[in-house]
Amino acid sequence: MIPVGFDYARPDSLDAAVALLAERGDEATIMAGGHSLLPVMKLRLAAPELIVDIGRLRELNYVKVDGDEVAIGAGTRHHDLEVSDVLAAEVPLLPAVARTVGDPQVRHRGTIGGSLAHGDPASDLPAAVLALDGTIVLRSPRGQRSVPATEFWTGVFTTAKEPDELIVEIRVPRTGSAGWAYEKFTRRANDWAIVAVAVVDGRVGLVNMGSTPLRASATEAALAEGKSIAEAAALAAEGTEPPTDTAGTPEYRKNLARVLTRRALETAAGR
Ligand SMILES: Cc1cc2nc3c(=O)[nH]c(=O)nc-3n(C[C@H](O)[C@H](O)[C@H](O)COP(=O)(O)OP(=O)(O)OC[C@H]3O[C@@H](n4cnc5c(N)ncnc54)[C@H](O)[C@@H]3O)c2cc1C
C-alpha cells in the first residue's frame, strides 16, 4: 500500500532535529533507517504529517569506550555493530545479536536507536540491551535524561520516550570476558525470532515472550542461588505471556524459552 502524504525534513544537526521535533510536536515522527517506520506507514497504521530524517546524521553513528561502559550512538546501524572492533572486545554479545537481524539490506539500513524506539517485543537488540542492563539516553529541548532498559519498554510498540524526545545514545557495561550467548529460533534464515534468548554475565533476556522484551528473573535468581543450569533454565518461562500466531502457541514458545535458555547458559558457561 502507499502511505498517506507527508512532509519531509532532513536537518543537518542533532540540535536542529531536536528543535524541529519540539516545534511540530505530535505531527512529527523521527525516521532513522526507515525499516520499521515505512512498513507501518504503508499499512497506514501511522500517518505522520512530517518525517524528520536523522538517518544521515554522522554525529549519531559511533561506538566508543567511556569509562566502565561502551557508548553507542543511536544512529549506529546493525552492520556497524556487527563489525565493531570495540564491541568485539568489550561487549561481544551485541555484534553476535546484530548479525542475526534480518538480512544484509536490513542490517545496512536499520539502526539500534530505531530498533529500541520501535518497541517490537520480537526484535533482537532490545532484549540484548535489557540483558546487558543497558541505559537509553534521551534528548529533548528540556535537556537530557537516562532511562534504564528495565524501565524503557512499557507495552507492545510503546516506550517511556516522550513524543519530543530523541534517543541519542545507548550505554552498556563493558562485559569483557564474562560468558555470553544468543540463541535465536526461526523457521527460516533471516526471519524474525519465534523466541530468542540473550545471556550475559548470568542475566537472561527473552525475545517474543510477552508484550515487551523480558528478563527471565526466576532463572537469574536460581543461578544466583547456585542452582544448576538445567534447574535454572526450567524456570525461564515463569511470569511470561507469549503471543499466539502462525509460528506457535504460548505453550510452544514457553517450551522454546526453556530449551533455548539452557543452550544459551551452557554456551555462556563454556566461553
Ligand atoms: C524485512 C525486514 C526484516 C527484519 N528483521 C528483523 C529481525 O530479524 N530482527 C529485528 O530485531 N528487527 C528486524 N527488522 C527491523 C529492523 O531491525 C529495523 O531496522 C529496526 O527495528 C528499526 O530501525 P530503523 O532505524 O529502521 O528505525 P525506523 O524505521 O526509522 O524507526 C522506527 C521507529 O523508531 C523511531 N525512531 C527511530 N530512531 C529514533 C531515535 N533515534 N529516537 C527516537 N525515535 C526513533 C521512529 O520514529 C519509528 O517510530 C526487520 C525489518 C525488515 C524490513
TrEMBL record:
It comes from the Bacteria. InterPro entries: CO_DH_flav_C, CO_DH_flav_C_dom_sf, Diverse_Substr_Oxidored, FAD-bd_PCMH, FAD-bd_PCMH-like_sf, FAD-bd_PCMH_sub1, FAD-bd_PCMH_sub2, Mopterin_DH_FAD-bd. Residues 1-177 form the FAD-binding PCMH-type domain. It is an enzyme of class 1 (oxidoreductase). Keywords: FAD, Flavoprotein, Oxidoreductase. The keyword Zinc does not apply. The keyword Transmembrane helix does not apply. One of its GO terms (molecular function) is FAD binding. This is Carbon-monoxide dehydrogenase (Acceptor). Its EC number is 1.2.99.2.
